[in-house]
Each structure stands twice: as structure tokens, then as C-alpha cells.
Amino acid sequence: MKLTVLGCSGGIGSGRHTTCLMVDDDVLIDVGTGVTTLDFDALRRIDHVFLTHAHLDHILGLPLLLDSVGEQRASPVIVHALPEVLAVLEKHLFNWQLWPDFREIPSPDAPWLRFEALQYGQACELGARRFESLPVNHVVPACGYRVAVPAGSLVFSGDTTRSEAFVAALNAIPDLRHLIIETSFENALADVARASRHHWPESLAADLAGLACAPEIWITHLKPGNETAIMDELRAALPQSRLAALAQGQVLEISA
Questions:
Q1: Could you give phi then psi for residue 2, rounded to 5 degrees?
Q2: Residues 6+ apart with CB under 8 A from 185
Q3: What percentage of the chain reaches a pLDDT higher than 90?
Q4: pLDDT grade, residue 256 (50/70/90)?
Q5: Which residue spans within the chain are E strands per DSSP?
Q6: What is the rounded distance in angstroms from the CA atom of residue 208 to the CA atom of residue 72?
Q7: Which residue of 167, 170, 242, 252 lies most exposed, with the fewest beta carbons within 10 A?
Q8: How far is CA 59 from CA 119, 179, 226, in A?
Q9: What are phi and psi of 17, to 5 degrees?
């Protein structure tokens, strides 16, 4: 299994792109501006999308992806997400006002888009890959994902702040090799982080203190301009951890 980072910033500007992770060449986890780095042929190969939540920086590329390649495909793109997330997409995005409902284009019998609800703890198996929804703690309904293959597992938190349920889910994964987890603000902006339910270095350190395993830790969703300060504070708070900032274009592989 190969995960390619198309976007991992908490904002845009100066080459930064928002969250979009590609698994092998046919699955996306979130569809932020990072999806725009793919060429047309790569876009056309995307069959499945797993959404962590419905905030714009994680979904804004989805309608344009469908608009660009829908007629070139023989089957619909399937979007997997919590039922609450799919309800937001139906009401506020694919509603014929902000954007056409591609679940009805070109016809309800042969659409370009299909929704599939995925509850917490449920999994979707695509060949040898298993995508499992994990509980997190954000300001809107949200989940993280475990991507498991026979050789090991990778977890992406999506957006979250402190979450005992998420840490418990991590501790239940015996073969966790990579943890991609957000930290959006430095400690001085902890009040902003609390209000928006994002991590800051001290909160992430407190959560990871309860982690029973020792995966490689990759920090994502760093706010533009604050990346260095956040990473410096994280290294000070977690001196024994193997952690680094996730980078656009980075590839993580799990193989036997």
C-alpha cells in the first residue's frame, strides 16, 4: 500500500495545499486543494473517496473532480463518510444551487456520484485494503481512518482535538506503523484551538502520553506561517517520539 500526500496544510498560499491523501492510485482520503496537483489521467482513476468531515478545506475539490472526469468514467465515484457528513453534502453542496447533484447526472440509474454511509467502527474492504472509520473529536461530526493491509496499518486522524476514544482505537491496533495526526496551532493559540477543536502541542502531547505503541508520527494541518513554531513546541513536548511534519509529495509505504 502506498499513500501519497497531495496536500497536508492547514491553509493555502506559497505552494501549500489543503488535505488530500491518495492511497495507491484509486482512493482519496479527503479532497482539499491537494487534488489539483493530479493530472487528468490520475483524476480519472479515482474510484473511491473517504471523507473525514464536511469542512471546505477537506471537500472543496470533490465537485470539481466529478465535473472534470465524470463523463470519462464507466462507473460512479463512491464517496464514503459518516451519515451526518453525507447529509451536509446533500443539503449544502450537491443541491442544484451551489452545485449540481451528480447522483442524478446523467441519470439516477447511471450517476457520476454515489454515497455510501460508514458508521464509526465500520470498515470498507477494497481488495487487500481495509478502510475503517475511527472516532475523533471535532467541532462537526468527523472521523479518522485506519488503512490496513496484511503488512501493517496506517491511521489518519483528520481534524481533532483531545479524544480518549481515538487513543483507545489506536491502542487496539497491534500493527500500527504510521500515525498522521493534526496539530493546527501553537500553544499561545490554545484558546483558538479549544474553540475550534484542533490540537496544539501540549494537547497532542497529553493524548500521545496514553499511546501504548510507538508508530512513526507525522504532523499535518499546520497553519500557514506557524509551521516552524508548532513543530519546535511539539519536539520540546515529545522529545522521545519519532515525529516529523508531513510534507506535500511525501510517500508512505507499507509492504511486507
A1: -125, 125
A2: 192, 193, 198, 199, 200, 223, 226, 230
A3: 97
A4: low
A5: 2-7, 20-23, 27-29, 48-50, 77-81, 113-117, 123-126, 129-135, 143-149, 152-156, 176-182, 216-220, 243-245, 251-253
A6: 44
A7: 242
A8: 19, 22, 23
A9: -130, 145
Plot region of 225 (φ>0 → left; ψ -120 to 50 → alpha; else → beta) = left
- Which residues lie below 8 Å from residue 65, measured CB to CB, with a gap of 6+? 31, 35, 43, 46, 77
pLDDT, tens only, 130-155: 999 999 999 999 999 999 999 999 99
Task: Write down how long the chain is.
Answer: 256
In 3D space, the residue among 218, 156, 228, 230 whose CA is nearest the CA of residue 192 turns out to be 230
C-alpha cell at 120: 464509526
Task: For the chain, report the end-to-end CA distance as a whole number of angstroms.
Answer: 10
At 105, list the grid cell.
447526472
Burial of 38 (0-12, 13-18, 19+ CB in 10 A): buried
Q: How far apart are CA 17 and CA 156, in angstroms?
A: 17
When divided into structural domains, the chain yields a total of 1
CATH number of the domain within which 213 lies: 3.60.15.10
Domain that holds residue 156: 2-253
pLDDT exceeds cutoff 80 at 36: yes
Measured CA to CA, the distance from residue 254 to residue 96 in angstroms comes to: 41
- In terms of Cα–Cα distance, which of 190, 52, 46 is closest to 113? 46
Closest alpha carbon to 18 in 27, 26, 29: 29
Cα(227)–Cα(142) distance, integer angstroms = 24
Question: How far apart are the C-alpha atoms of 170 and 174, rounded to whole Å?
Answer: 8
CB-based contacts of 123, cutoff 8 Å, min separation 6:
130, 131, 132, 133
